Amino acid sequence: MATEVLEEYGTRQRLLNSDRLLAGVLIAPAIIYIVALMGVPFVLSIYYSLSDVTTGGTDAPFVGLANFRALIGDPTFQQTLYNTFLLSGMTLVVVLVLGTIQAELLIRSFRGKWLVRFLILLPWTAPVSLSVIGWLWMFDSIFSPIDWSLREAGLLGHPGALLGPATNLYWLGSGGLPMASIILVNVWRILPLGTVIVLAGLNSIPREVEEQALIDGAGYFRRLFQITLPMMLPIFGIAVLFTFVFTFTDMVLVYILTRGGPANSTHVLTTLAFFTGVQGGSLGQGAAVALFMFPVLTALSAIVLMLIRRREV
Amino acid sequence: MATLETRDLHTHFGQVRAVDGVDLDVKNGEFIVLLGASGSGKTTLMRTIAGLEKPTSGDVFIGGRLANRLPPKTRNIAMVFQSYALYPHKTAYRNIAFPLQASHMPADKIRSRVTWAANLLSISHLLDRRPRALSGGERQRVALARALVREPAIFLMDEPLSNLDAKLRHSARRELKRLHRETGVTTIYVTHDQVEAMGLGERVAVMNAGRIEQIGAPLDIYRNPVNTFVAQFMGSPPMNLVLRNGTLIGFHAEDFFPRGRGPNSEDMEQLTFRVVQVEELGSEVLVYGYVAEDEREPPPEVLATLPTALVSGYIAEGAEYPFEVPRPAIRHFDPVTGLRKD
Description:
Chain A is mainly α. Chain A has 14 helices and no strands. Chain A is globular and about 90 Å long.
């Protein structure tokens, strides 16, 4: 009897002290979360993209790659693909350049630095939907304060004005302006994160290495291109990855600003997938749109991460 | 190669006077050591010479030319940082070549200079490696090669040996001496280690609170410290100080003998040594204790280093022995100001 109790106690103790069990228990919620909320929908969407499922019924006949084939020939989809890359690429370039400049400013010490830092980080703290609605009003076709400022400055709204005789620019309505406006807002939104990432990179370069380069006789550009930037390459890789992922996965921006219009000219993959699959009802087509870039993004992420690891020092 | 001069040099950070009026004259080709505890201003002095810090007042002359306003890159100085500050993304070869590229030297000349420096430091086989694939000692050699490769006017070294283990440090010290002999570059070497200072420096400048307390040949400073600070800082172990008849008398541990067992001389100061601890280190014995005649309460510790043959089986812990010091080896200091009196 006594030994039995001891053994029972021993088993319980062993279980309680087991690192393996503890590790399993601690990591289980994350795994359940990922599998249930990301894994299952992901597998489901792969299946949908290969089937002719609609919101109108439950049966999902397998159609192979038909959805994808249809997309490739569709001019709206081609435009959307182009828009997505344009938005990501332009955002990336502008964020890296402006982020590096802002980080260079923030790494110096000056009076009122905390205020500047606060202002720079502010866009990141605002809820995306609210700030984008704010931008929607800024771009309003009649009451846009930007247009008003331009008119007051004499650049718009009278014959011979630099930006034309019309009273408004129609930021979200005409020519290339809608895409440019979307890029502008996206840059505004991602720049704080980019700045913080680059700032972290700058801070991670030991001061002595910079000073050594000074003493070794290197001028500003030699230091920038041979010391600072190469040493920050892994950090830039992270910034590139984040910008791409954020831009590729975000639909709020386009959804609120233009809803893909005018005439489907400003769709990105996420909004097109939403309008095709959910509002349009063809779930299969929508899933195909959403998944179209998956292999490309996977490859891109893998390459960037590999480069970062190789350059790690 | 060049001379270096500082005139009444001050470098302050706000209220902190890191360098507080330093006059230094370094001859062409000289090896001078700045010795001081951390916070004594030795590194700031070196950084001011390098141009990494702006002097608050005073002048720096390199090769007779006023260098106050020159940026680091035009001073033609080379520096080895304590951390070596190698460029982590460049191979050893590219690290060493970097200062030459910055001076727009033609590629074939760069190659021959790098090869020369690599041979001088026996690192030719490591040139393809990145710093992270090098050991501490190898990194230090790459840093030295990078500093030597462009024949600088002045060579600045900030505790370059402190990241090495004791054995490596010893061989690196000899190597530095050899390098200096072979290249003849004026060298300023910062350290807090008096053994390094004694072994390396042609002259040593002992620094304290931003000033140079004393400058001179290592042995001269060791034997004739100008004040109690230098006396206690220079040499390992430091000078013993005993307060007797209102005067601090100072003597080195190797001049403290059991009565009748030291040099045969009449001119001896007699003291009573209360032994607390004995360490037998093989060739010599370290005897710790205090002098009974010391007028301070409690009396500070005093150390005797004695050849083992002299005291084997003679000294016991806890006992009291008559000891003596040859009077010519004794230095006298003012107990209030700490300055030398004789």
